[in-house]
Structures are given as structure tokens and as C-alpha cells.
Amino acid sequence: MKKPQQAFIGLGSNLGDTQANLMAGWHRLGEVTGISLIRLSSPYRTEPVGMDTEHWFTNAVGEISTALSPTELLAAMLAIEADLGRDRTLTRDRPVDLDLLYYGDLMIHSQALTIPHPHIADRLFVLAPLAELAPEHVHPGLGRTNVELCRKLKTQAGVERQKWRSMGLSGV
Question: Does the annotation count 99 as an active-site position?
Fold first, then answer.
């Protein structure tokens, strides 16, 4: 068995009970053989970016340890999204969205997968929870920490840190 890797997963939802949807996705990740949940950021209420919808998002970032390869992890994440009602043929609203942000210090650029996620440095809704969880984690391609990347975007509006509602868990 290969050595477990640290990975960061972006979680998002803008339909239904968004916090419950994120928790469902997070818990489902923890049920996958080869994935151990480490911790989950605060939820962030965020304005939609790059899509035409009136539904704001709730976003968070989770840290996991995984023995799965990046492609195996991606497949598990896509299966969880589908099980929770995500239809990837629709580009607007979604009950849950799981994105592989970082997988160790690995850099992959293939048709199926890009790691680190190609839009990390441009999205405060990803960087704010990433900077909360792992402020000193360095983006392997940009050579900057999550907190440095986050500070660069702090002028973006529409990202508000919240607290988890009592759902039997306040993060992990």
C-alpha cells in the first residue's frame, strides 16, 4: 500500500440546505476506503463567480489523508457528487460540488485532471477557507502560501465566514 498523501478538497453548494449538503459530501468522503478525514474549515457564504444565478454558495475546504491515487480520488469525488444529486451536464446551480485543490505537492496537467486546481489563485471563496486550514501550505506552481494568495485577493467582495449550524458536528 502506498504512503498516504495530504489532499485538500473544495466543497460547495448553492441549492437546498447548503450547509447540510456540504456535511453530507464531507461525511461521504470519510466513508470511502483509503480516505481519512482530518479537518474541515468554517463555512463561507459566497457570491456566485462565473455563473448566472441568484443562489449564493456555501463553500468550505476539507483536509484529508488518502491512499488513493489522484485519479481514484477524483472518481470517488465524482461518484459522491452524483449520489448527492449533482448533474455535471448542468453548469449552473448544484446541490454539491467537490473539487480536488491540492494533492501533496503534486502537479498534474492532463485532460482528465489538473492539480493544483487551475483556479485556486483567482478565487477568494477557495483561498479564504484554505488560508484558514493551511495558511503556510505553498502552492507548488506559484511558490506562494495560501495566506499570501488570499491576501492578494482580499479586495474581492462577497465572501463571508460563517459558523456551522448544529448538525451534530462543527467541522472535524
Answer: yes
Among the listed residues 88, 93, 99, 161, the single catalytic one is 99
86 is known as an active-site residue:
yes
17 tagged catalytic? no
Q: Which domains does the chain have, with CATH numbers?
A: 5-161 (3.30.70.560)
Q: In this structure, how many other beta carbons lie within 10 angstroms of the beta carbon of residue 68?
A: 21
pLDDT string in tens for the chain (172-residue length): 578 999 999 999 999 999 999 999 999 999 999 999 999 999 999 888 777 788 899 999 999 999 999 999 999 999 999 999 887 776 678 889 999 999 999 999 998 899 999 989 999 999 999 999 999 999 999 999 999 999 888 766 678 899 998 765 544 4
Q: Is the sign of the CA dihedral 32, 167, 133, 39 positive or negative?
A: negative
Catalytic residue among 45, 87, 97, 151: 97
